[in-house]
Amino acid sequence: MFRRKFNSQILLLVGLLSSMALFTYLLSTGGIYYYDADFNLHIGMHLDAILDRQGSRGHPRATKKKLVLDEKVYDRYRALNKSMYRYSVPRDYSCFFKDKLQGPDMPDVHSAFADPIAGYVAFIGLKFLKQKWHSEVFACEFPDGKLTKSNPIIDDSRSFGIMPQYVVVITCPLPDRYRWRAYFNMTLRRLSIDAAYSNITVCTSGVSPETQYQLAICTMVKSADSFIPEWLDFHRFVGVEHVFIYDNENEGDTKLPTTVKDYVDKGFVTIVPWAHSVSRYKTYLEVQIAHENDCIWRHKYDVDWMIKIDVDEYIQPMDAQRPRITDYLQDELLKSLGALRVQNWFFGHPRHITPRGNSTITRNLWRSEKPTHQNTGHDKNILRPINVHYFKIHNVKLGGDIMSADPYKELRMVHFRVDNPRALRFELPDFNVRDKSMLRLRDLVRASKSRSP
């Protein structure tokens, strides 16, 4: 009897020591994601449903849960390579380069993250047309000595737009032991020659099976704070569930966290630091295209539809019986698309009229008689991230088919370009038709906001 009790105590002690050793190991190597004790249960409950996204949308919507960080894990990972990384607002376990990685004989890399749902590490970058990274093989070297070779890289050679830019995405299979880590250090090595990005910290993508969005927006801004609150209120009213704002302003100069604090606190906005520099012989579009492809690849498995617009652009539902953007995205035929294209329609005011007030909408109640012609560089898209491989500003470079929404009966993009102080690189049309439809919508938005707590 005593021996049996003694053996039970020994087994209990061994189990306790093993648990302590595992906890110490996890802290020293990056820890797990935020799942803690129920970690395996959460994966078992949700992973199959998430991976089925390419099929039917029959999976139940996951409950949105507030992320609770393990402060010890967070502080340890934040201290690593502090000079190289910045963090989102609100903070989570994701991290972002302060600037892109550049090295001799290596691709320019604007972001790197581990996708626990897809099971790979992704490196997002831009390249010159002459660079043939698709013919190369890279190795991802992990801290425990494991090595995985890159998946086949698809070449981006499509040139469109006045300033061609080319995307490269490198992915490596993620060993199981790193799949749900908050972060880990690794090396990306080019195998044909001795070139590598060594000992870089890769953080998790920030995506959780617990949080799913049917419709989100991804945009990049720089010193455009005055446009943002009204733009956010409008799109929340017409069905957008979350907005990812990539902040292109320098860390010491940005006021965006203050401008959108209420929206962040309510879980509607995430700010991503993105003050990257422009490479020699590339244009300012490099940084914009890099953020677009980072957002698409980072959110392939938690966003069904992603609107890609600027903060002077509004997606307007045109059918009063279908007042939400999501009302136009329910057709089963749309699920295989790469994007639903929304035609651009400029709004402004005639030169002889002095606009009043500080609302972008009330200042610009006139439009051109017709929308801009399709495929002339002004239309924008509502993307299906799971079906897009490469993207550039106005179009899917590689991915599923594209359909256009009817700008008279379905959706149009109202473009308030007149008030935007950014340099104008094209000619605006005559604003000769008064159109108060956006004003009526704005009044509904304000009434709705006044009723909400």
Brief write-up:
The protein is 23% helix and 26% strand. With 453 residues, the protein is α/β, with parallel strands linked by helices.
Characterize the largest beta sheet: strand count, sense, and whether it forms a barrel: 7 strands, mixed
N- to C-terminal separation? 64 Å
Tell me the strand order in the biggest sheet: 6-5-8-9-3-4-7
What is the 3D shape?
A: globular
What fraction of the residues are assigned to beta strands by DSSP?
Answer: 25-35%
Number-wise, the strands total 23
GO cellular component, one term: cytoplasm
InterPro entries: Glyco_transf_92
Family: Belongs to the glycosyltransferase 92 family.
Enzyme class: transferase
Structural description of this entry:
The chain is built from 9 helices and 23 strands. By secondary structure, the protein is of the alpha/beta class. It has a 7-stranded mixed beta sheet with strand order 6-5-8-9-3-4-7, with helices on one face. Helix 4 (about 230-235) links the parallel strand 10 and strand 11 (about 240-245). This is Glycosyltransferase family 92 protein.
List the helices and strands and how they pair.
Blueprint: H1 2-29, H2 39-51, H3 71-79, E1 85-86, E2 96-97, E3 108-115, E4 120-127, E5 138-141, E6 147-149, E7 166-173, E8 183-190, E9 195-204, E10 213-221, H4 228-237, E11 242-247, H5 256-259, H6 261-265, E12 269-273, H7 285-298, E13 303-308, E14 313-317, E15 339-342, E16 344-348, H8 360-363, E17 366-367, E18 380-383, E19 388-392, E20 395-399, E21 402-404, E22 411-415, E23 433-434, H9 437-451
Parallel strand pairs: 3-9, 10-11, 10-13, 11-12, 15-21, 16-22
Antiparallel strand pairs: 1-2, 3-4, 4-7, 5-6, 5-8, 8-9, 13-18, 14-22, 15-18, 16-17, 17-23, 19-20
